[in-house]
Each structure stands twice: as structure tokens, then as C-alpha cells.
Q: What sequence folds into this?
DNA sequence: GTGAAAGCGCTAACAA
DNA sequence: TTGTTAGCGCTTTCAC
């Protein structure tokens, strides 16, 4: 690391005390308990500190002694920088930051590359607790967090019996989408979903992989869809489900393409995120398919971009999730049982879902 | 803070060593220098650690000993959560996060309420260095950072002779905007700018406040405009400049309204940020003014939303700024002189700037 | 109001 | 390969 122009010579509390001819306690008090010494002495201490270039008590040493770091650690599924690219993650972070600043706590973003097993960054994090945002149930970083003797709150996934959690009812939420499409008359659908496990599988998802998904959120959404459409007489085994490891609009577009290529008869594409749906929308446009006349597309999350695009989707309170997670973590109450906060969602009827093309012919025709 | 279900009893490296009948060094080595002891012994150590619920070396104690925190601190002008609401700040953060993850460093967001003088959070931050993002030159948090014996890099502002800095040439950049408008024929302009100092002044800005602005970036932009328009024969003292403390579209709208109410003859509104310009655009629409036929509006930053709105603006490489700041800080080279990175900007010709209304009559008429 | 003593939990020389 | 010694810089009883 570069040496700054402002590096001071290493004066310490002890050397300051020696210089002043007082005890270390007195110097410490000058900083931490102004009322414990005379204003005059305090002035002298601070004055001498300035002269010696003493920067005040070392935060790390203080943390060691007080057993408080004054910061919350955040563990994400993705590379650190991804958090600033995904609108839903940004909203979550804003909420979490809100909770942290209310409690005057720092927020430490822990670098955790999902494609690496290296958990040293978790071990090195000097924090009083962790918030874990949407990671697979077999994430080694998560395991490392849980080994740390500090409180932890998980947002979204995984669901752990002994850990505080904030989330939504994914199955119920996606069921609203499914029922809406079923009512509109859709029976031939395709599904685009996010990463189901830590291994990259960009393509069709066989049923066993759906059921074994290490991301509870995605698993629930698929399960919800399967149940709803099965009730409507759809054979789920025939429904094309395509997975994408990365999460951006290009992936949404290519996944949509993959489904439409294989099964052009599809009338609706259900995406498990707005980002993917926005990509699917692009692909539909590219193919000259009108939405929703030729193809219905739905998303999930309710990000601004989706709203602007008029996407039919489910809104979930991302900011509130972040805030709730922070509050849960920073809440002073000592609790014995793990707490769960389940937030509400709302079906947003946009302009990208409509009756299937040629519905009459298919359902009421000859 | 809530007690987690995962709090272990406090086994330490020493107690583990005692239990095993080996020295603390050996246990330490088992974690930090696997090659320094036999695989067999290491296995025993780790195995016993698990049995005792020893979570591995305490990160804070380790930091104290090694004098490395493994994290970079970030100080922002605004409340923590603001960083996730401003697209330019988000871009900067993404770049900084990129640099941090490359170096395997954590990123600690330090809570620093700009309306409070409390700098304790800076003192408590266990970090190896600071990045300071766009703060006023008299910010007490900045002063506290500079007192800390760690390297520091400032992005944008303030300009400090002895501190590494990343920024752009604000005066040159805004001059491009000014010259563009001057060429189009604008002589009666208004300016909407961001906060000029730590005190809230939502309204017109007298010349002395412009010159005394504690935010170097805003000061330079105003100075650049003043110089360019003076060259074009405009009396800068007559140009209405309105300041807003908060940074959002509502503020941009109300500032635009304030100027238009006072001086309806204005033909162009120069805003020192895209967010403010987007707000001004809203206000123009609300008043039934066509842009650019009735009113020209320009921004600064080049955020996505501006692009979508077709705003005429200056694009600055926000992500690159973040990355450069991180690189500068984490760069291993020991440097003696402070370094400065000045990044390029680009005038974006959108659709919100055009010739002034009735330009002919005014300039070539009777 | 001030000081002495006792660690917080760990790592890094160096010695064995 | 393992252990001994010596702190990192600070806060906190508890006496005075």
C-alpha cells in the first residue's frame, strides 16, 4: 500500500503518557471519558498529542480490548462489484446502510468470489456481526461466517433453522404470477431462472436439478410454478426451464432465445427476475414478436427499470429487506430463538402479459 | 446486538494450545503457515479446534499484531445510504469495489453524517487506508481521516497538496458546455448547482458565496461558466445561480422553478449534475415549456438516466474514478510525492440543447 | 481525579 | 518441526 504524505511517526498512548508524566489511564480517559479528568489536564493531553502527532487511540487495539468492531459485515453471493450493478441488490444495500447509520455502525463489504473457495476474507473481517445476502446453502463463505462467534442474519437464502432470517414467501409470490397467466389462458409456457447451484449450467434444467437447487429462492419459485401449472393440467415435465449462471439482460435474452428456438409454440415466458425478463423482452423485440400479443413475459422483483418497461411482475420490498436485516442484527434484545421476518409482495399488472395468441382457436376451436 | 444461535464459548488459541499440549505458535502455524508443521499435527490441531468450537484466530487480535486490517475505508459526503441512491456514486463504488476485490481487500463504508460533527466513526474504523469521495474542504471527517496514520486518496474534492487525488478537469469540462451554448446563441442563462458548503442555502447564490464555495468541484464549474460567458459578453453578476443542498430531482425541479419565476426570459438552464437537470426537465414539462425549443437544459455526469432522457451533458468516467482511487491506494509502490490522476470527460450532444427561442429577433432584429 | 496492574488474542523473532 | 519470549496498543477494574 502506498505511503501517504500523512503518515505520522508511531506515537502511542503509552509514549504520550510517558511524555506527559501521567498514566496511560489518564490519556485514555482524555479521549474516552472526558468527565473523568480535569479540563485543564485534558487540554494538556490533547495538546501534547497534537504536538507528538499522536493520532488518537488505535482503533484495532481498542476493538481488541472492547470486543467491539463497530461494523457489520456483508456477505454477498456475487463479486463485490456486482452489488452495485444489480438494482435489487442496490436497494437491499441502501436499506442495510440505513439501518447501519441509524446504529452508527460501519458496513464492511466482504470480498467473496463465488467461484473460489477461499474464505480467508471472512476470517479476517473485523465485525460484530454478519448479514448474508442470498447465497447457496452450500456456500463455503457462509459456512465460515457461521463458524464465527458473532450474530448473523440471512436475507432470502438459505433458510437455516438456527439463524435469523429476512425474506419473502417466494412460492406464494410466484403462484400469483402463475395463476394470473393461467387465468389468461396460458398453458404452453417456458421458464427462465437464475443460477440454481454453484456450478455453471447455462441451459435446460432437468427436473432433478430443479428439485435439488441449492438456491432456496429459485427452488421455491420453480416449485410454485410447477404446482400451479400442474393444477391447471400442465405436465411440468414438458415445460422448458432454462437456467443462467450470470445475471444480466444478455443472459435473459439468450435464455429466451434458447426456449423459443426449441419450442416456438410457447405463449408465455416466466422469468424469475426482472433483469432476465428485460433481456427476454429485448429478444422478443429482436424476433419481431409483439408483447403481449405474440408472447407474454413476466418478471420478478419490481425494480424501477421493470416499471418503466411496463413489465408484469411481482414487487418485493428490497429496501425494506435490507433495513429489516440490519435491524434484526443490530437489535439489542437478546433473543434465544431465531427470528424470521417475512415481508409482503405484490403482483404488478403491467402491459407485458395478455391472453395467448390464438387462444380461442386453441381452447374453443373445432 | 442480538445473540446468534451460533455463538460459541470463547475458546482461544491459547486454550487450544493448552488442551493439545503444544505451543501457541504451533496452533497459529496450523492456521497461517500450514507448511510449518507436520500434516498430522495440523490435522490434530484443526480437529481439536472443531471439537472445542474454536473459530480460528480472532481477526481483530490478528490485525493488531500484523498491523493490517485487510480493508479500505470509504468516507462519503453524504449519509451512507445516499451512496446507493445516486447513480454517479454507485458507479464510483462499483469501480472502487472492483479494485478492492482485485486486491482481496474489504471495503468499509464509514458512517459520516454530513450534518454532524461527530467523527468517532472515523476514529473507530479498522482500515489500512481511506478513500475520500467528494467532501468539502472543511469537512471535519476529512480532517479526522488525515490525522490517521494511514494512506489516503481523495476523489474529486478537496484538492490537497499532500494527498493523492483522482478527479477530472471540471473547469475544462464545463467550459465545453458553456461554449456549446454560447455557439448556439444563448446569452441569458441560469445555473442550478449542488451544495456549495456545509451550511444549507437553498436559493440564489451571491458571487462571494460562489467564489468561497467549499466544494472545489462546484466552485470550478461555476468559475468555468463565469469565464466562458464573460468572454461572450455576458455580465456574470446578472446570471441567476441557484443552489440546492440536497441532491435529487425534486431539488432540480424547484431550483429551475425558482430561476424561471424570477427571470422568465432565460433561454438556457445549466445544471451541474444530471440529477438536477432531470429535475429541471420535469419542471419545464410541468410548465409546458418545450425543450429545447423554449428552453435549453444541460446536465453533468453522464448517468444512464440522462442518456435515456437524451440530455445534453458531460460524461465523466465514474467507474474509472473509483477504480483509479482504489488502485492508487492499494498500489504497493512506495511513493514520496503525492500522485494525481486526471481522467477525461466528453461532451454529450443530446436533444435538450438548441438555439434560443427567437434568437433571430434578439440578435439580428431591428 | 489519578495511577498500577492485568490482560484482550494473537504473531514473529529467535532459539532449541 | 516445535517452543520461548516479547510484545502489538489499548481499556478497565480497583485502589489511592
A:
Amino acid at each position: 500500500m502506498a505511503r501517504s504524505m500523512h503518515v505520522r511517526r508511531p506515537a502511542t498512548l503509552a509514549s504520550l503518557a510517558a511524555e506527559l508524566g501521567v498514566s496511560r489511564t489518564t490519556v485514555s480517559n482524555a479521549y474516552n471519558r472526558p468527565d473523568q479528568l480535569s479540563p485543564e489536564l485534558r487540554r494538556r493531553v490533547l495538546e501534547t498529542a497534537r504536538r507528538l502527532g499522536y493520532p488518537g487511540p488505535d482503533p484495532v487495539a481498542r476493538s481488541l480490548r472492547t470486543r467491539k468492531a463497530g461494523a457489520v459485515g456483508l456477505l454477498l453471493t456475487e463479486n463485490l462489484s456486482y452489488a452495485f450493478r444489480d438494482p435489487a441488490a442496490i436497494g437491499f444495500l441502501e436499506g442495510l446502510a440505513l439501518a447501519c447509520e441509524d446504529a452508527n455502525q460501519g458496513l464492511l463489504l466482504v470480498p467473496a468470489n463465488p467461484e473460489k473457495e477461499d474464505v480467508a476474507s471472512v476470517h479476517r473481517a473485523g465485525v460484530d456481526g454478519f448479514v448474508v445476502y442470498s447465497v447457496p446453502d452450500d456456500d463455503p463463505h457462509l459456512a465460515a461466517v457461521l463458524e464465527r462467534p458473532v450474530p448473523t442474519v440471512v436475507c432470502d437464502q438459505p433458510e437455516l433453522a438456527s439463524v435469523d432470517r429476512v425474506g419473502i414467501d417466494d412460492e406464494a409470490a410466484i403462484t400469483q404470477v402463475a395463476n394470473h397467466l393461467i387465468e389468461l389462458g396460458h398453458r404452453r409456457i417456458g421458464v427462465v431462472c437464475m443460477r440454481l447451484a454453484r456450478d455453471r449450467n447455462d441451459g435446460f434444467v432437468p427436473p432433478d436439478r430443479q428439485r435439488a437447487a441449492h438456491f432456496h429462492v429459485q427452488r421455491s419459485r420453480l416449485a410454485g410454478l410447477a404446482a400451479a401449472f400442474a393444477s391447471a393440467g400442465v405436465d411440468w415435465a414438458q415445460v422448458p426451464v432454462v437456467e443462467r449462471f450470470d445475471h444480466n439482460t444478455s443472459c435473459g435474452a439468450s435464455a429466451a432465445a434458447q426456449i423459443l428456438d426449441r419450442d416456438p409454440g410457447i405463449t408465455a415466458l416466466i422469468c424469475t427476475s426482472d433483469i432476465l425478463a428485460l433481456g427476454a423482452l429485448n429478444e422478443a423485440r429482436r424476433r419481431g414478436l409483439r408483447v403481449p400479443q405474440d408472447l407474454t413475459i413476466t418478471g420478478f422483483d419490481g425494480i424501477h427499470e421493470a416499471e418503466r418497461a411496463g413489465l408484469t411482475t411481482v414487487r418485493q420490498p428490497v429496501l425494506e429487506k435490507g433495513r429489516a436485516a440490519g435491524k434484526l442484527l443490530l437489535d439489542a434484545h437478546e433473543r434465544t430463538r431465531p427470528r424470521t421476518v417475512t415481508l409482503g409482495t405484490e403482483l404488478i399488472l403491467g402491459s407485458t402479459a395478455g391472453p395467448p395468441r390464438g387462444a380461442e382457436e386453441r381452447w374453443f376451436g373445432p
The longest strand of chain A covers residues 71-76.
